[in-house]
Amino acid sequence: MKPKPSKFQYVGAIVCGIPSSLPDAAQRLSDPSEAVNYNKAVQQHQEYVRALKDLGLQVIELPADEKYPDCVFVEDVAVVCDKVALLARLGHTTRRGEATKMKTTLQQLGLKVVEMQEPAALDGGDVLFTVTEHLHLKSMMTMAGDDMIVVGESEEAKNAWSEMEKKARFRYEKLSVSEDTAANCVFVNGTLLHLSAAEIPNSIETFNKITGPKIELENSELHKVDGCLTCLSILI
């Protein structure tokens, strides 16, 4: 008997190159403790893009824009659901210019583009689409399966999960991992993309116990500027 197809089926993805301005000028939540190795960041990003292509996605690769050091984090710029794209009005005013190129790209793909209006603001990376509904926040929880959400074990993550359970209309299976960084995964076409064992040593065994195809990816360099796996693509 064939396995049931995943609900999370995608045909394409939008990614963007890494500008050389990123190591020194990208937004950070805190002061950097370690410099970004630009060449290594590019190599890790290329492996990420290759994984998406290997899963059958048509990947649109936008060129890096030196004016926008964070432009590799395309997920923040738009939220796509079916044939509709919400063009976000980013919280950081210095990033809002990234929306111009993204709007054109989304329209060229035939998507209906809805633009967020002032004074509303949103980073697309804050929206977790579960197929059933849209929830928050990907920095501490993401989908690890059709009805499974992987959640970090920090107090912030636990509190977010508790709030989500109260407000969600659907019941989800919870998969707990020791590190919040491990809770950021990409579940696409039945395959789970997660961080490498070297980056999540306390959580890797949890992922090893999950049935189904999985791909380990390194993201050590972009993590230094608060980048995670979901940040790097818009799935379509």
TrEMBL record:
Offer an example of a GO molecular function term for this protein: dimethylargininase activity
Pfam families attached to this UniProt entry: DDAH_eukar
Any one of the GO BP annotations = arginine metabolic process
Name the UniProt key words of this record, in alphabetical order. Answer: Hydrolase
Q: Which residues cross the membrane?
A: none
Q: Which residues form the active site?
A: 136 (proton donor), 231 (nucleophile)
Q: Which domain of life is it from?
A: Eukaryota
Which family, according to the similarity comment? Belongs to the DDAH family.
- Matches recorded under PANTHER family: DIMETHYLARGININASE, DIMETHYLARGININE DIMETHYLAMINOHYDROLASE
Protein name, as recorded = N(G),N(G)-dimethylarginine dimethylaminohydrolase 1
